[in-house]
Design a protein that fits this description.
Number of strands: 12
Oligomer: single chain
Strand content: 15-25%
CATH topology of the largest domain: Heat Shock Protein 90
Helix content: 40-55%
CATH architecture of the largest domain: 2-Layer Sandwich
CATH class of the largest domain: Alpha Beta
Number of domains: 2
Strand order of the largest sheet: 2-1-5-4-3
Low-confidence stretches: none
């Protein structure tokens, strides 16, 4: 599938580039050819004007033009005409050829034209010609035909055409190669997203299948027995599984909306220390059940920050509370009874820093890279949860342009560090 997409992208890229090259090459060719023709026509017009004026003046009151005396005797004029590849023909009033610079007569009919025109000489030879009548008053002295070889237009045009074809071919080959690699780069995120979607779908299906199967089993047991006590027990199990399933669906929807950008962040002014205190208060009953010790330290803000602006952030308070709850709750769950949790809040330059450390069993170094993956659970754990808590925490931190880091050592405990940007005016250093 992706190879076909890559081929189509590359073909589109090459096709569009080929079309642009064709338009450019055609325009450039026509421009150069038009410039060459214009140059030849200007030369013809200039020669006709100069020579015809000289002939009229030289002839004066004579009845006929002495072509040889007027044009053939001037070596400078002959050399200039040869340099410009110009040939002249003089005709008497009866349109009979009287004088020519051509080695052999052209045998072309005389056709008056005040504008240059292209005429064939036979074979593949062509001339660009201009013919004018020489008139003094009402007296016709003859005709002047000026010719210029057309190969001075066709040869450079053909050379330019071959150069453009060669250049366009080489360019298309290079574009084809680069287009293939660019198409591969373009679909790389798509392949990654597709692989991620497949993995996510497989994980979600696995996590959803288990509670659904248990609910069905308990429903069947409840329907198969007439004992009210047994039915009541099965209904309680169903209710508990339904809550778990509902929590899992909520977490999945939250992650999907966060990553798709469907739901805006809607930042509001809030105080991070107040949110942290509220989360700690919510987790205290659990800590007391496990006889755990909590060490909470909220550092004084910098002296340049007023008290009412201490730990002030722009963010979504619900999301930030969920972030802190997930991390603190993980610390409580994975710390043994009688353990200690240290929570610190301070400001480090451009960031507020929240450190949540426990002295629990720790996390193996091999599992740390996958800790924030969806549905990832530590090996050998039997604690309740969906495996989405840390993925949600990371998503919230990234949405607030912050960072989350984890350090852990087996048997020593785990430390999570959350960095959230401070308002610009409160940044120090």
């Amino acid at each position: 599938m992706f190879r076909a997409i890559q081929c189509r992208l590359a073909l589109w890229y090459v096709g569009v580039t080929a079309l642009l090259l064709l338009v450019f090459a055609t325009g450039f060719f026509l421009y150069v050819r038009g410039t060459l023709i214009e140059r030849v026509d200007d030369t013809l017009s200039h020669v006709v004007e100069v020579v015809s004026r000289a002939l009229v003046i030289e002839t004066g009151t004579a009845e006929v033009i002495d072509w040889q005396k007027s044009l053939g005797s001037d070596p400078l004029t002959s050399a200039a005409l040869e340099d410009d590849h110009i040939d002249l023909e003089g005709f008497d009033p009866n349109r009979q050829l009287a004088w020519s610079t051509f080695a052999e007569p052209l045998n072309l009919p005389l056709h008056l034209s005040r504008t240059p025109e292209t005429v064939p000489m036979g074979g593949d030879r062509w001339l660009r010609q201009m013919t004018v009548a020489l008139v003094v008053g009402d007296r016709l002295l003859g005709y002047l035909r000026v010719s210029h070889p057309w190969f001075e237009v066709t040869q450079p045009s053909q050379a330019l055409l071959w150069d453009l074809l060669l250049g366009a071919t080489v360019a298309l080959i290079l574009v084809s190669i680069s287009g293939w690699f660019l198409a591969r780069l373009a679909i790389a995120p798509l392949q990654e997203s597709y692989a991620y979607l497949k993995q996510f779908t497989a994980d979600a299906s696995h996590e959803l299948r288990n509670p659904v199967a248990l609910i069905q089993t308990n429903v069947q047991v409840a329907l198969a027995t007439a004992d009210p006590a047994t039915q009541q027990q099965q209904l309680q199990v169903i209710e508990r599984l339904s809550r778990r399933l509902s929590r899992l669906v909520d977490d999945l929807l939250f992650l999907a909306r966060q990553e798709s950008g469907m739901v805006p962040l809607n930042p509001q002014p809030c105080h991070l220390d107040a949110l942290l205190l509220a989360v700690v208060e919510e987790q205290e009953p659990l800590m007391q059940q496990k006889a755990m010790e909590l060490c909470l330290n909220i550092a004084d803000p910098p002296v340049t920050v007023p008290d009412q602006q201490a730990y002030f952030v722009w963010g979504n308070p619900d999301h930030l509370s969920r972030l802190l709850t997930n991390i603190v709750n993980n610390a409580v769950q994975y710390t043994l009874e009688g353990g200690t949790i240290h929570i610190t809040l301070d400001q480090q330059g451009k960031y507020y820093r929240v450190v949540i450390a426990d002295n629990g069993r720790g996390i193996p170094a091999s599992e740390l890279p996958r800790l924030f993956d969806r549905f990832y659970r530590l090996q050998g754990t039997a604690l309740p949860g969906t495996g989405l808590g840390l993925a949600i925490a990371q998503s919230i931190v990234q949405a607030h342009r912050g960072q989350i880091q984890v350090e852990s050592e087996v048997g020593q405990g785990t430390k999570f560090t959350i960095l959230l940007p401070t308002p610009a005016k409160d940044r120090q250093g």
